[in-house]
Specification:
It is a single chain. This protein is an all-alpha fold. The protein folds into 2 domains: 124 residues; 225 residues, no CATH class. The protein contains 19 helices and 2 strands. The protein has a two-stranded antiparallel ribbon.
């Protein structure tokens, strides 16, 4: 008799335990015992009435059929009555061969690229994922939604903490530097300047430059007065005219900048626009200008200060994300719910996106089957081989033992019907 398992097994999606198989085994054994009792009880009544002959024949054949099926079912898992009869205890004695057979069956029928591709071609993984994500905020109550988003936020924080900031920062910087090195910046900048000027969007830029120039002069008035003082002759300094000159120069600069700022048609503004237009043309068509820009770009990429700056930027971004993920008041949970819902809607409605994701999933699964199929089936085979004889017997019997007891019950009933039919034939004929 099989030892009861403490952990329930599943088969066909339904929980099955050895206890259920045990109940069916007692039922089948009870029927067999009942047939034996009926056979003995009716053996002396056969001559009393023809009906008893049929009952006795039914019980005799049912007893034989039940015993035969009991032996067959028992022989799968153990030696009947503990006797080492050949070709019994089939499963424990051949568990290694069974493990290899299961692995080969799994490999040949489930993990071949053709089977995986055919199975995946009929699945809309993207749409199913979209439906799950779109309905995720509505499933469960607020507490459950909070746990989901909090768990996702904490997972994000732990992933960010586990990353090596220097290594990842260097990898991202190297990737950006590689892409930037391939990019021809000069023509792009030239077209950007032209487009900005056509749409008159460069005016705020000029205004900002003029304001910046005015503030810079204001912040450095003393320095400018000292420069003018040093440039004028000694006679003028002795007469104190240098202060008047410096004041006049500064006032003239302030007035000029103010006029440029308030007058959109000021000649200086026109000169600035002409310079911008020429710069845009040179960036696109002048080889010398383009070469200078490329050289500046290469120097910038190779500058160690840029690497240090980027590492600092990445670290600040990482730490900010970690703090937001762990701060319940940051609103990241709500943002994540909204983002997941929007992603789910996009996956449901965008047929092109579905096609791309489904194709990616199909190719990924085919690749996994191709590269790791042998390892997967080897894991199955080695796991079964590591089980001892009692474990594999209990697990298989717990999964299918109940159905095997139905075989015993059916064998008892069918045997009885056959015996009764044979008794009828021998009696009539």
């Amino acid at each position: 008799m099989a030892t009861r398992l403490t952990r329930p097994l599943t088969f066909g999606g339904q929980p099955l335990t050895v206890d259920r198989a045990k109940r069916m085994r007692w039922t089948a054994t009870g029927m067999l015992a009942a047939m034996a009792v009926i056979f003995i009880a009716t053996h002396g009544l056969v001559a009393a009435h023809p009906v008893w002959g049929y009952v006795n024949a039914f019980a005799e054949a049912a007893m034989v059929g039940g015993l035969a099926d009991w032996f067959a079912v028992t022989a799968l898992f153990r030696h009947p009555l503990g006797l080492p009869i050949p070709h019994t205890a089939i499963i424990p004695e051949n568990k290694d061969r069974i493990a290899d057979t299961m692995a080969a069956f799994l490999r040949e029928n489930f993990l071949t690229p053709a089977v995986v591709a055919r199975r995946m071609s009929g699945m809309n993984v993207a749409k199913a994922a979209g439906e799950f994500l779109a309905t995720a905020p509505e499933r469960g109550g607020p507490d459950e939604r909070s746990r989901i988003t909090s768990g996702a936020a904490e997972l994000l924080a732990e992933v960010l903490e586990s990353l090596d900031p220097d290594r990842l920062g260097n990898q991202v910087r190297a990737g950006l530097a590689g892409q930037l090195a391939k990019l021809d910046i000069a023509p792009l900048a030239g077209r950007m300047i032209e487009t900005t000027m056509v749409d008159r969007r460069h005016q705020p830029l000029i205004d900002g430059f003029v304001r910046w120039a005015g503030l810079t002069i204001e912040d450095n008035e003393e320095t400018l007065r000292d420069i003018i003082h040093q440039r004028v002759s000694g006679v003028l300094r002795w007469a104190g005219i240098d202060k008047t000159i410096s004041t006049s120069v500064l006032d003239g600069l302030y007035k000029l900048l103010a006029e440029v700022l308030v007058n959109p048609d000021h000649p200086l503004r026109g000169k600035i626009e002409e310079g911008l237009a020429k710069l845009g043309q040179d960036l696109q068509h002048d080889p010398e200008t383009r070469a200078k820009v490329e050289e500046m770009k290469r120097d910038l990429i190779a500058n160690p200060a840029v690497a240090v700056w980027w590492t600092g930027v990445w670290e600040r971004i990482r730490q900010s994300l970690i703090r937001r993920a762990r701060d319940p008041e940051s609103g990241m949970g709500e943002d994540m719910r909204t983002m997941l819902a929007e992603l789910g809607q996009a996956l449901q409605q965008d047929a092109r996106l579905q096609h791309q994701i489904n194709r990616f999933a199909r190719r990924t699964m085919v690749g996994v089957a191709t590269r790791y199929g042998d390892q997967i089936v080897r894991l199955v085979s080695e796991t079964v081989k590591r089980w001892d004889a009692r474990t594999i017997t209990d697990r298989v019997e717990g999964a299918v033992g109940r159905d095997l007891q139905f075989i015993r019950i059916n064998g008892t009933l069918v045997g009885g019907l056959v015996g009764m039919t044979l008794h009828f034939l021998t009696t009539v004929l």
